[in-house]
Fold this sequence. Notes:
Layout: E1 8-14, E2 23-24, E3 29-30, E4 49-55, E5 65-68, E6 77-83, E7 90-98, E8 108-114, E9 125-127, E10 132-133, E11 138-146, E12 152-158, E13 168-171
Antiparallel strand pairs: 1-2, 1-3, 1-4, 4-5, 6-7, 7-11, 8-9, 8-10, 8-12, 12-13
Amino acid sequence: xxxxxxxxxxxxLSQDLQGTGRSHVGSLVPVGTxxxxxxxxxxxxxxxxxxxYTKSQLAEQTSPVGSSLVLTAASVENVTFEDLDLxxxxxxxxxxxxxxxxxxxxxxxxxxxxxxxxxxxxxSRVQLGxxxxxxxxSLFIAADTSLQSYTHIAIFAKSxxxxxxxxxxxxxxxxxxxxxxxxxxxx
Length: 187
């Protein structure tokens, strides 16, 4: 009688610890490795657990081991912007925000001008400066920054894995009015 040695691990998202309704995640993981990557923005759907089966040359194990999924969400709050640039179609001033309540996975923030409040894939955007440390809660926009067709300031929290999908956004509506002096008379 020959013993059968596992060669890989198969990782699945499932609806329970028994592997009900399971869906395979990523590639098979070789034995000797104890880490499997689940891609950023993987849809949770009805899955509540991650389960792992050993796999040999002959078959996959029938009873998995597993754990409940732990999901993390983090968005900044109370985004404010004080525009000190008096020209129409130009910005300049300070953006500030409050950190998310759960900072356990936040490493950076990315601040953008966007053509709407939505996700990165649904709008045009330009990043204002480089990524900011998670200890930062403000950014200064230089005077005379062109507004172009941008309508929102958006702040995305970033982990070591990925940038969040949906930002905290602030509308810039009403910025198109200039601050010109009118009815000036000289004597």
